[in-house]
Amino acid sequence: MKKAYRYDDEIVFYFDAFDNKYVAQGGSLAWRLNNPGLLLSHSLYRTGYKSIGAYHQYAIFSHPLIGQEALRAWICSTKYYDCPLIEIARYYQPNHPEQYLDRLCTLTGFPREAIPRSLLIDDFEKLLRALQKLVGFSPENEHQLSLLPKIKARFYLSDRKVEYYLAGYDTLLKKGEAIEWVETHKLDAVIVHKSNGEMYLRSRPGHHFDQIRFKQKDYGTEKEFKDAVREVGQEKEGQCIWGFINGLSNSPSQALESASFISQTAHGEHVLYLVNDAFRSLPDSIAQKFGHHSESVKFAAQFFKMLIDLSEQASSQNKPNIIVFSHSQGALIANLALSRLTPKERQKIHLFTLGGATLIEPDAAHPESHNYFSLPDLILKLTSYTFCTFLLRLHDGKKAGLKPEQVIEQLILEDIEMLLETRDPKAIAKFRKQREEYYAHELWKSQNITILNEESKKIFEHALKSPCYRQQVIDIIAKYRR
Fold first, then answer.
1. Measured between alpha carbons, how far is 416 from 433 in angstroms, rounded to an integer?
2. 241 and 104 in one domain?
3. 194: domain range?
4. Do 62 and 173 fall within a single domain?
5. What sign does the dihedral 414-418-423-426 (CA atoms) show?
6. Do 57 and 152 sit in the same domain of this protein?
7. Looking at the DSSP assignment, which residues form a beta bridge with residue 323?
8. Of 36, 141, 191, 218, which is least surrounded by CB within 10 A?
């Protein structure tokens, strides 16, 4: 810890080298101050130790071990090391030093005339433990030191009826809840009061440590939180909750264009879309393909939770459906984000992927969720080559009049020929069983996938504005608007 400030008689704020904020509360004062001897700030000049803050006259140390070393050095200073224990007693209880000395000698078993210099090493440690116990620095009185999460992003709609804050990456708070968290020292932010009485949240200014409330004129230049969602269209009575997650290499204007297309298709209805300005995020996409939960994935999980909350807030008895379109990398983000939700939450999301960099499995979201990809679209073939090859074999087999079981039998025979070196019947039988289980799972995964545009002559077709993908959006919106 680098700095510390007293907030009130029960709360001490600590700050580390990275400006992270911690709150120490509960337990004894000695614990909250990391000061096991309750040393006064002005008494430290003899010890060679410095405090990082002060609680009235008491020093605050950066760590309990530092406080213990300061106590050891304080006892070894010229003022106490060669003097009877009554001198230490006068420090802690100046009006009744004899009473304190009696308690100290009872704990240690030392004679009243003992001096620190004469003590053996074990007895000196016993003296240190006794002094700490007398000021309340014992395990049963230990305080709580909590790292306060910062607000990572704001989920904000322009009509001001909806405002959420993301505490850390896993907790989505409504505005009122976020303010309460700041007031109860669970969130590192400040409450700013406007002249009209309205309150809003801002990140804590780097030069303010002990305040959590400001008047607007005192706060200074406002530091906005990162916005995690954008919106287009007008909210209409009874509409579905439309969502969208764009893909890689989409500028903000391109993402707006796609979201606007969804809104226009839905007769101008309100559409929320995740901020994924991924113009230079190819490394991020590669990491996501290997299962890394990047910031955009964490934001997407909270985006889903916000959509669920908006649906639950609807006054109608039948809650509006949540329909989310994801394109390209957006499908990859959505798939990882779903894993951060509970099964009950996932079942509320109707997720439709279009040219996705991954495919959503049948039980990952609402049962009506579906994947669409165009034959000329190379993205899925590049990102999920093995599974995509299986899908295309099924597709070609269907065109040739074969059942899926017949296609799988062909694949198993090819695998035995290419992958198995032995001709031992038992080994072949065992390998066949393994491949049957493997392809049965692959077939299960394929049940919510539709291959589009099989007659297309194009070499590459991936954009959301491609006719095949646009038509699917139109059809899905028409279905759910009815």
1. 11
2. no
3. 148-219
4. no
5. negative
6. no
7. 242, 350
8. 218
Q: Give the 3-state secondary structure of residue 124.
A: helix
Task: Tell me which residue of 82, 101, 84, 85 sits closest to 93, measured CA to CA.
Answer: 101
Domains held by the chain: number: 3
Residue 472 contacts by C-beta under 8 Å, 6 or more apart in sequence? 352, 354, 372, 452
- Of 219, 249, 282, which residue constitutes the final position of a domain? 219
Distances in Å between the Cα of 321 and the Cα atoms of 286, 349, 467 are 32, 8, 25
- Same domain (yes/no): 383, 459: yes
254, 109: one domain: no
The per-residue b/e assignment along 128-148, b for 16 or more CB within 10 angstroms, e otherwise, is: bebbbbbbbbbeebbbebeeb
Task: Please indicate, yes or no, if residue 338 is contained in any of the structural domains.
Answer: yes
- Please tell me the chain's helix, strand, coil percentages from 3-state DSSP, rounded to the nearest 5: 45, 20, 40
| Amino acid identity, position 87 | E
| CB within 8 Å of 235: residues ≥ 6 apart | 159, 269, 270
Look at the block and give the residue holding tokens 């992927």: 353
The rounded distance, in Å, linking the Cα atoms of 269 and 260 is: 10
pLDDT per residue, tens digit, the chain (482 aa), is: 999 999 999 999 999 999 899 999 999 999 999 999 999 998 887 788 999 999 999 999 999 999 999 999 999 998 999 999 999 999 999 999 999 999 999 999 999 999 999 999 999 999 999 999 999 999 889 889 999 999 999 998 877 567 899 999 999 999 999 999 999 999 999 998 888 888 888 888 876 777 788 887 777 666 678 889 999 999 998 899 999 999 987 888 999 999 999 999 999 999 999 999 865 567 777 888 888 898 999 999 999 999 999 999 888 778 999 999 999 999 999 999 999 999 999 999 999 999 999 999 999 999 999 999 999 999 988 899 999 999 999 999 999 999 999 999 999 999 999 999 898 999 999 999 999 999 999 999 999 999 998 676 677 889 999 999 999 999 999 999 97
Antiparallel, parallel or unpaired: β 171-174 and 229-232: unpaired
